[in-house]
């Protein structure tokens, strides 16, 4: 029984604002990783990022609300509106019928850095009234709920890069317990001096200065990744409720989810990929499908050689027995890794691939590593896509896997 | 719209409790303290609070090394993670479950989950490190040569869930929940849902926060949410009293071992209580403001009781949010009247924040721990510092002295910034289920 369908997508990402802008950028193969603007990052050893340059906050957010919130929340507010518009969704009479259940990562970085700076340079009275509500991880969820009048059970989960997928997993529990519509996903805005420094201490960021050298998942010359900002918010609904309100277009079904933790080390991934593979297997079992039925895998694509190798090992454990290699692509390579926003954006990308029968390639994948039994997608290609597996990992050992399917009545196979 | 709860027949019980709270040591120290009505609020010692409006807090005299953490664990982790690790150690030991490296006869590690709540994560470490890398706020372009190598851990609070998963070899679903001041209730609620839905048999669920740092004190100063009663720190937190003037900042952690009922029965585990229902609602009104009518909290309470198929008149104890702000205590009193009807007039209702302060996200789990102990032991902790009744807060707040009372069903409720309202229902193991 299908529990959830995706009916609306809102994208605010380095690839563009709006779902179609994002998709055409990916399909045309336009990398959105560029030299950092807004501050000079020279001393952090990192010079590139995926920034959302085309986003004009005042087009999306009331100026009175803007002063109370961080850029991270501006992007969430904008993406939530875009998702609702895309779904043709307006707040129903029952205010409890809509939930906001987002992933968060690093909170309101720029706002908070500014306030802490003032506190230490000038004293406590320089801290403004909005620090208490702008910085904390629930700010975006709370502001969307208040602006749009959604009173259903709201939530915020943090599992670093896996959060976007996990928020969808949690939304299923919300729907099972009687709330028919949930906004899920998330955004991130950590391309700011202090947050970038913090992220750089992971040791996983590429120091390359040319985009073509910086973030190359599954390439022999992979040397780390690039961070980015933005993400996606999606509206998911209980299928009967979506039909009852006369929804015109269903992007796809959320058919299965699985989440595990390596529980190996506070930073390093487990050396055997067993738990990562198990997350994928759990999601397939949850969806009631076999590995043979998967048309496309959107990989986590860490761009760190050891992590890439572990991801391929996990995929081989699950899909290695297939007669035809499963296509694997890593769309984060075009935007950088958006932490909580990234895996939500990949869900949007998976649904777009399904709609148009186009698989985007992996940016700068010039010289792929050996991956027997897997088909690493270098360039975008036309291909029928009915079932997609989206993968995400979070720093410290979080593994998450989501299965998306074309709605059963529209499926050709 | 249907508002039912349970999706399966799987039931959830609490089989282990660990607490790190101000003014005491461990679960039993905490229980002794709150049932004695002793307060742990004092003038802030972590930094000089002289320039702050609110100079009072409930601090934990916590030393991770003395609580059994390794030097590496202390070095890489913020205080909120360290306190969660210590609370989790106590909870797991209390449960009798064999978890962790080398455990041969424990639960299937793939079926053990972790849900840790935290409102503000590693804010203390982020601020301390910022002071270094910005040279006390003089450089916007912060200097990496003064940075700790563990700042990514501090930036994203999911590190707390990771540390617990690694510590106990828990390979099931793991996450941090960060819904502000309802995080601690929501974490236990979500943990219960993992078990109900069949995705885990055992979940370490709890919350931790360590917000007694200059930036946190400053931001609550500016909105006057915290007390200005600096002259009498030991009596600064006065929930439901007419003289209340804001909450007292606290810190701490509680972690519970949640277990599927049959799993607990098979191994003959001691059960504190059952988690019978949980619900969360938003007021969609204001990030910090509460309407006096309490409608959304009442809705959360009603739903949580519905899930457990519990009638309002079975509730014997309400562990209140009782933060001690003017608006919260009025709001909450209205919500309890609205949801429990005539029962509100005879229910015992108390706020342990009067003694241990308000530790933001952590307090929800600490209060669930207190509620579970109250159900198990038949003693209701009091509201300390209660002297002057407020006509708008006219329920039985168990003033100043603990009360012996058999409690079959108890509620613990919370409100948080963002407009979140959460309620959880705990029932005595011998309560007859309909």
Q: What would the principal axes of the Cα set say about the shape of chain A?
A: globular
Q: How many discrete domains of chain A?
A: 2
Q: What overall form of chain B do the CA principal axes indicate?
A: globular
Radius of gyration of chain A: 20 Å
Work out the helix count of chain B: 13
Order of helices and strands of chain A: EEHEEHHEHHHEHEHHEHEHEHEHHEEEEE
**Could you tell me the strand content of chain B as a percent range?**
15-25%
Q: Give the beta-strand count of chain A.
A: 16
Radius of gyration of chain B: 20 Å
Average of per-residue pLDDT values of chain A: 97
Classification by helices and strands of chain B: alpha/beta
**Low-confidence parts of chain A:** none
Q: What's the total helix number of chain A? A: 14
Distance between the termini of chain A: 18 Å
Number of strands of chain B: 15
Order of strands side by side in the largest beta sheet of chain B? 5-4-6-8-1-9-15-14-10-11
Instruction: Give the helix level of chain B as a range of percent.
Output: 25-40%
Hey, which two chains have the biggest interface? Answer: A-B, 94 and 92 residues
Write up this protein.
The complex is a heterodimer of chains A (413) and B (434). By secondary structure, chain A is α/β, with parallel strands linked by helices. Chain A is built from 14 helices and 16 strands. In chain A, helix 11 packs across helix 12. Chain A is globular and about 65 Å long. Chain B is built from 13 helices and 15 strands. In chain B, helix 3 runs parallel beside helix 6 and helix 7 packs across helix 13. Chain B is of the alpha/beta class and 434 residues long. Chain B has 2 domains: 12-266, Thiolase/Chalcone synthase (Peroxisomal Thiolase, Chain A, domain 1, 3-Layer(aba) Sandwich), CATH 3.40.47; 273-427, Thiolase/Chalcone synthase (Peroxisomal Thiolase, Chain A, domain 1). At the A-B interface, helix 4, helix 5, helix 6, strand 6 and helix 7 of A face helix 4, helix 5, helix 6, strand 5 and helix 7 of B.
């Amino acid at each position: 029984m299908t529990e959830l369908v995706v009916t609306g997508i809102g994208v605010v990402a380095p690839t563009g604002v709006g779902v179609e802008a994002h998709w055409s950028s990916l399909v045309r193969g336009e990398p959105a990783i560029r030299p950092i603007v807004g501050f000079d990052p020279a001393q952090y050893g990192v010079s590139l990022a995926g920034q959302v340059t085309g986003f004009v906050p005042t087009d999306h957010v009331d100026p009175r609300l803007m002063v109370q919130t961080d850029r991270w929340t501006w992007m969430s507010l904008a993406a939530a509106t875009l998702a609702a518009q895309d779904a043709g969704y307006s707040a129903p009479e029952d205010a409890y019928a809509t939930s906001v259940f987002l992933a968060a990562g690093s909170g309101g970085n720029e706002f908070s850095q500014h306030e802490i700076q003032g506190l230490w340079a000038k004293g406590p009275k320089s801290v403004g009234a909005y620090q208490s509500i702008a910085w904390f991880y629930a700010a975006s969820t709370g502001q969307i709920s208040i602006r749009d009048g959604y009173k259903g059970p709201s939530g915020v989960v943090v599992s670093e890069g896996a959060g976007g997928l996990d928020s969808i997993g949690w939304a299923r529990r919300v729907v099972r317990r009687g709330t028919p519509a949930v906004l899920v996903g998330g955004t991130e805005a950590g391309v700011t001096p202090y947050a970038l420094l913090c992220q750089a201490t992971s040791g996983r960021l590429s120091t390359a200065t040319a985009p073509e050298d910086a973030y190359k998942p599954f390439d022999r010359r992979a040397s780390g990744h690039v961070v980015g900002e933005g993400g996606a918010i999606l509206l998911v609904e209980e299928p009967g409720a979506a039909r009852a309100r006369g929804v015109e277009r269903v992007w796809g079904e959320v058919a299965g989810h699985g989440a595990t933790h390596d529980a190996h080390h506070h930073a390093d991934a487990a050396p055997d990929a067993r738990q990562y593979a198990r997350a994928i297997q759990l999601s397939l079992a949850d969806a009631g499908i076999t590995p043979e039925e998967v048309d496309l895998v959107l990989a986590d694509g860490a761009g760190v050689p050891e992590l890439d190798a572990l991801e391929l090992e996990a995929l081989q454990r699950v899909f290695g027995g297939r007669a035809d290699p499963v296509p694997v692509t890593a769309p984060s390579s075009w935007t950088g890794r958006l932490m909580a926003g990234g895996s939500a954006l990949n869900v949007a990308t998976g649904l777009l691939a399904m709609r148009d029968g186009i698989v985007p390639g992996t940016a700068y994948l010039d010289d792929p590593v050996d991956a027997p039994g897997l088909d690493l997608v270098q360039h975008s290609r036309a291909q029928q896509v009915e079932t997609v597996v989206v993968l995400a990992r979070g720093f410290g050992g979080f593994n998450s896997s989501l299965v998306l399917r074309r709605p059963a009545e529209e499926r050709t196979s | 719209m249907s508002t039912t709860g349970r999706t399966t027949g799987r039931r959830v019980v609490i089989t282990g409790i660990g607490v790190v709270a101000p003014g005491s040591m461990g679960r039993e120290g905490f229980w002794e303290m709150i049932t004695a009505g002793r307060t742990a609020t004092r003038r802030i010692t972590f930094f000089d609070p002289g320039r702050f409006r609110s100079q009072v807090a409930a601090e934990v005299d916590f030393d991770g090394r003395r609580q059994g953490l390794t030097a590496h664990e202390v070095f890489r982790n913020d205080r909120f993670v360290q306190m969660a690790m210590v609370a989790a150690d106590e909870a797991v030991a209390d449960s009798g479950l064999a978890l962790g490296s080398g455990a041969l006869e424990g639960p299937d590690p793939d079926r053990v989950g972790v849900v840790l709540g935290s409102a503000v994560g590693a804010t203390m470490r982020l601020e301390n490190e910022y002071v270094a890398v910005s040279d006390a706020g003089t450089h916007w372009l912060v200097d990496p040569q003064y940075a700790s190598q563990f700042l990514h851990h501090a930036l994203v609070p999911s590190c707390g869930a990771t540390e617990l998963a690694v510590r106990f070899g828990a390979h099931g679903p793991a996450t941090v929940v960060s819904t502000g001041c309802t995080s601690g209730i929501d974490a236990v609620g979500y943990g219960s849902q993992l078990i109900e839905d069949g995705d885990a048999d055992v979940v370490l669920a709890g919350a931790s926060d360590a917000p007694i740092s200059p930036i946190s004190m400053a931001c609550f100063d500016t909105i006057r949410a915290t007390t200005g009663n600096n002259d009498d720190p030991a009596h600064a937190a006065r929930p439901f009293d007419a003289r209340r003037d804001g909450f007292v900042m606290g810190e701490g952690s509680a972690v519970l071992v949640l277990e599927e009922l049959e799993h607990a029965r098979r191994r003959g585990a001691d059960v504190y209580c059952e988690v019978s229902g949980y619900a969360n609602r938003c007021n969609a009104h204001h990030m910090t403001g509460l309407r006096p009518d309490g409608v959304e909290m009442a809705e959360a309470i009603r739903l949580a009781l519905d899930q457990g198929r519990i009638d309002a008149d079975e509730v014997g104890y309400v562990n209140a949010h009782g933060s001690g702000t003017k608006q919260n205590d009025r709001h909450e009193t209205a919500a309890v009247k609205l949801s429990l009807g005539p029962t509100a007039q005879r229910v015992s209702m108390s706020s342990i924040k009067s003694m241990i302060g308000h530790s933001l996200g952590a307090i929800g789990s600490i209060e669930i721990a207190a509620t579970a102990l109250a159900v198990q032991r038949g003693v209701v902790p009091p509201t300390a510092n209660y002297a002057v009744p407020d006509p708008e807060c006219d329920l039985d707040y168990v003033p100043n002295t603990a009360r012996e009372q058999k409690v079959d069903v108890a509620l613990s409720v919370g409100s948080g910034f963002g407009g979140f309202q959460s309620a959880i229902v705990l029932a005595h193991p011998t309560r007859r289920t309909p």
